[in-house]
Amino acid sequence: LFYSSVRFNFTIYHNIITSAEKYELPIEVYDASEARKKWPQFTIPDQFRAVLEKNSGYLKSELAIDTYVKEAKRLGAHEQFNTQVISVDNDDNGFVHVTTNAGTFIGKSAVITVGTWVKDLIPNLPIQPVRKVVSWFEAPKQLAEEIGFPAFTIQLGDGTHYYGFPANKGLIKIGRHQGGQYITKREERLDFDALNEDRTEIEPLLNSVLKTVGNLDHGVACSYDLSPDEHFIVDDLPGKKNIQFVSGLSGHGFKFASVLGEILVAKALNETLDFDLSPFLLSRFNS
């Protein structure tokens, strides 16, 4: 389930409504009074609105990755894990050379999808690594998935955007989409609890809208590859049509992995694309 409530700043709310209308998605819209009746777990102010999409959900990332790998192997792909890629470049004959610490691999095309540290391979990309944290809190039974508590995203009146998932095994996972710390090196992605704000950044949500959440149990640190407009970059490497890259996923890319893979494979095989990639091209940052 997808739940969104917006106070004063209706950006997310209107984007959801517009998208649902354009793509004919079945949604239900509630005012604050109706939302409080449906989800009494939330303390919803009168200015809020809520949108429910019954056909949506959330991904179990480890299971999804394991499934992707197994299906790729079944279709003939070969894995080369625990291998450092040093460079990706063309030779004079148009073949791609992927140089690694385990040797050089040569092919007709390549795709670079390396996440936060993409500038190790493509130095001039306008990407900013950001350290982020996400936390798990003790949760009462009324926040559990088995009783129908939904995955949710909530935007407060100051524009801060939080997200969370229904509780499992007594813990609920919650994060803040904005914020974090700009970093330039891997060692700057400090473990959870290294900064005071790691423990406090969810407090505005817990003090206002989701008051039934219990004490912090634990948290982890991760990172975003942030683009200037926080939208994806999906393009060919400048001057190299047989080397594609995806970057700038900005913390919301995993759920699009399947369709991004479909696009990249089609381009590598020179098939006709049914997708308009113009909004995602690197050239939009030229100015």
Order of helices and strands: EHEHEHEEEEEEEEEHHEEEH
Please outline the major beta sheet. Answer: 9 strands, mixed
CATH class of the largest domain: Alpha Beta
CATH architecture of the largest domain: 2-Layer Sandwich
| Cα separation of the termini | 39 Å
Fraction of helical residues: 10-25%
Work out the number of β strands. 15
Helix segment tally:
6
CATH superfamily annotation of the largest domain: D-Amino Acid Oxidase, subunit A, domain 2
Structure characterization notes:
The protein is an alpha+beta fold and 287 residues long. The protein folds into two domains: 2-56 and 128-226, D-Amino Acid Oxidase, subunit A, domain 2 (D-Amino Acid Oxidase, Chain A, domain 2, 2-Layer Sandwich); 61-127 and 230-285, FAD/NAD(P)-binding domain (3-Layer(bba) Sandwich). Helix content is 19%, strand content 29%. It has six helices and 15 strands. The strands form three sheets. Strands 1, 2, 3, 8, 9, 10, 11, 12 and 13 form a nine-stranded mixed beta sheet that branches. Strand 9 (152-155) and strand 10 form a beta hairpin.
